[in-house]
Amino acid sequence: MRHQKRTVKLNRNGSHRRAMIANMLKALVQHGQIETTVAKAKALRPHADKLITMAKKNTLASRRAAIAKMMVSYNKLSSKETRAAKEGNTSSYNADRFVERKLGELAERYGSRAGGYTRIVRKENRQGDSSPLCIIEYVQ
């Protein structure tokens, strides 16, 4: 029996599940909302709320824990790309470099809020396999 088991397995092994949650967290932080299935959104919600709580602490350890949770990877920049980045040209960056900044903005937005940072809005079923879709988003 699965009494008092918190992990939703989603028919995936552990490493695949962690990578999927990390990718969904990054996309949610970058775009503010993502469209996914209801089961994945319900599995993602506690991770997304805990991510904001970590960002609100604003300590070095909490920032590193948030980066580890999202599996942020920084691509190595060549010296030419580094000079361009210092001048303000950020076209050579991958999107992961901006996630940390966006997470800081979210932490400022929810500074006085005690919890409940995400919302799940149900949509119609997917046409191919009739699985229920929804939008998970950060509340305003």
From TrEMBL:
Gene3D superfamilies: Ribosomal protein L17 (3.90.1030.10). Keywords: Ribonucleoprotein, Ribosomal protein. It comes from the Bacteria. PROSITE patterns: RIBOSOMAL_L17. Pfam families: Ribosomal_L17 (PF01196). NCBIfam families: L17. Belongs to the bacterial ribosomal protein bL17 family. Part of the 50S ribosomal subunit. Contacts protein L32. PANTHER family: LARGE RIBOSOMAL SUBUNIT PROTEIN BL17M, RIBOSOMAL PROTEIN L17. This is Large ribosomal subunit protein bL17. It comes from Candidatus Neptunichlamydia vexilliferae.
